[in-house]
């Protein structure tokens, strides 16, 4: 992490009250959180990105700008990181020749850790509660996946049918073909996911209540207790929040105390409350239902992966369980405005595959559908009450999306950083911002599609006749080699090593092939290798968008980054075709092989180009009234990648970044020459003439 060390910085000391410009309070999600865990999880990427944007030469920065860390108290009663950031002040467009100014802003980042503020529920209590909660979670997940996979594909097709030809990437017929294939494939995939999740729920429904009594059986306790305790630790907090009002109040008290400390640190400055997952439900309820945000100087609430709608409020016997967080937020802001107090802005980030947040935060399902559609194809009919919504792409993998918001630099971390830096920080032009967001979407969709292709290759390849024979030979060769090395040691017999792979190899055929267990093991190893390589390549492509001071021009980036995706998808297409050839009984005729090859090629081509055609989400503005006017007015014309690339703003910034290039090393110099047209500047020789 690049942190600018300023001359004369003092050693760490206790922070003084009233000396900070902004305090950032982070609240963790469900599960046991260690001290400083959530603080480090967010403070490190926040400060790293803050340093990067503050030192950007495009905004006029130099080596005197950036972040200086003063104190990292990670083991105190209230863990905290304090820092100062210096950056060039945003110039007034009306006075372009005004002298540059530097802004110095002091930041305190605090942790609100509520996971140890209450006694957890017992296993039996948690598992009895888990069954209805599980079905609620499954229902919301299926609703999200239906929107992401099927509804979005349908809306894209309809939008392209009515769009002018000039706005389409390909001729209308080819564009329709891509959209139609996407809709069909996505619908089939959704049906598979629906069946899997419903069957999973049906299987777990009778099992969950029995898990706690089964621990009375000694052998079951030895095998399963660690796993079940981990499960209780994860979801037990959620059960306590919903079922035990006193314990839920203890969680909220931690947030209140952290806000009170943040208010002391900033004096008249701003407090920014930031919460993830269950912590978002805790923070939202505490801030708007129990506290007056103005008393704590809270100017902004940011929620990520928020389980606000999923968890709602605590349940009291005899009380209605209705919860309307958006109405409460709007009413609180209205009352504060009437009293002359500032309102609280609310930004919500939800990953499109995150099953816990499952979309926008609203008070009704109808409003949720409207705000979800507004993230892609806004119309006057999609206006609904709610906070500023950011649909983001984390990993394009449902099992990972919920826990990695801190790694989404462009769509989550940087917007948060810019809020912390305040209105004096230079803004990004709309075309440049759109390009980065769109490239991140393409990159993350490529990661997801390549992962699916890797799983297809791994599942099929070890089962093909030739590949199975090769894997069996390779395993036996490795085992024989190990046995030979062991036998070199006097007194040791290496024959056991040679026979250790017998379970994985079926020696009954000629040549030997993998056994069913060997097939599973080989598939797991191939999948691990391909997924690791895919993630490694994706990190490089993402870095070129996020961290390169002079990134590739967009068209070159699109071509280069499509190569790994194409290799994975074509590899999957090849193994699927060979599986038809190898496994189909009776053997298919030539005509059928040709037809299958054409169909597979069409699907493969669609998968390769799909990230380029799919729509990117846009920010849905805050909406506190239904008078037809958003709190933040969106642009009147939808941005497109071609228009953004051709814009003066993007071309000007790219030229300026290239002008600032100063490559160091052979590889950096080669890259700068071939991709940015960089040429070495002539070295000026010092004059031998002395002027007196």
From TrEMBL:
The chain crosses the membrane at residues 144-163, 183-211, 452-475, 517-536, 557-580, 592-609. The keyword Transmembrane applies. This is Uncharacterized protein. The lineage of its organism: Bacteria, Bacillati, Actinomycetota, Actinomycetes, Micrococcales. Coiled coil: none annotated. Keywords: Membrane, Transmembrane, Transmembrane helix. InterPro entries: AB_hydrolase_fold. The keyword GTP-binding does not apply.
